[in-house]
Design brief:
Trp Operon Repressor, Chain A; alpha/beta; Alpha/beta knot; five-stranded parallel sheet; 2 domains; 247 residues; three-stranded mixed sheet; binds adenine
């Protein structure tokens, strides 16, 4: 995969993209990531990329020409043929399903918004989708672009040491993850659930599924409502409900 990021703060990305799994993913060739300074696409000598809002009001607005020129330059001749994503709090909420969808693309262009927003015509002319990473306001689209890059790149083939962990992690099956334990078996008077020490794989699988259901029911009941529950899930949920009623 190739990812282009257009930003007014290229230096923001240096260290997070270089370390850990993202750094390794680039060195292994699983992904190439290029950071482009939006100011290089301004045409005046002060390299201005923002201006006052028509109609007045506080804050500055990102000008349309530098952003459009950046995207068109990156795409070269021809039609827009890859997702051109504007990071903005007004976008569609980013989630694991979206990360999986983006991980299937050959190329992404991420545009980091700043100031009060971007000229609306940029959306009409070059943006194919808008993503928000949550209902809060960041200083700019850069941290959001990093979140998107991180969650997409780790899904690319060969990037994670143990791809099986992707299948069992939170949201993979629409549920939160079951609780994890490692040694020691006893710690500060707290013990690891007996079944995990039993070596009985079928029972361990059942316990984990049940605890994933319990955790999701307690913490994110709306996720359960979106799922088509299996026969076993319904059975385990009734057990959980009965246990709750005993308490
Ligand atoms: N820019 C500012 N806040 C943002 C958010 N929550 N998501 C995406 N881009 C943003």
């Amino acid at each position: 995969m190739h990812i282009d990021v257009v930003t007014t703060f290229p230096e923001f990305f240096a260290s997070p993209l270089d370390c850990s799994i993202l750094g390794r993913a680039q060195r292994s060739g699983a992904v190439t990531i290029l950071i482009h300074d939006l100011r290089n696409y301004a045409t005046d000598k002060h390299r201005v990329v923002d201006d006052y809002p028509y109609g007045g009001g506080a804050g500055m607005v990102m000008k349309p020409e530098p952003l459009a020129r950046a995207v068109e330059d990156l795409l070269g001749e021809g039609e827009l043929e890859c997702p051109v994503i504007l990071l903005t709090p007004q976008g569609q909420q980013f989630d694991q399903a979206k990360a999986r969808e983006l991980a299937r693309q050959d190329r992404l262009i991420l545009l980091c918004g700043h100031y009060e927003g971007v000229d609306e015509r940029v959306r009409q002319a070059v943006v194919t989708e808008e993503l928000s990473i949550g209902d809060y306001i960041l200083t700019g689209g850069e941290p959001a672009a990093l979140v998107v890059i991180d969650s997409v790149v780790r899904l690319l083939p060969g990037v994670l040491g143990n791809p099986a962990s992707i299948d069992s992690e939170s949201f993979a099956n629409g549920l939160l993850e079951y609780p994890h334990y490692t040694r020691p078996a006893q710690w500060r008077g707290l013990s690891v659930p007996e079944v995990l020490l039993s070596g009985h794989h079928a029972e361990i699988r059942r316990w984990r599924y049940k605890e994933a259901l319990r955790r999701t029911r307690e913490r994110r009941p709306e996720l359960l409502e979106q799922l088509e529950l299996t026969e076993q899930a319904r059975e385990l949920l009734s057990e959980i409900e009965a246990e709750d009623n005993q308490d």
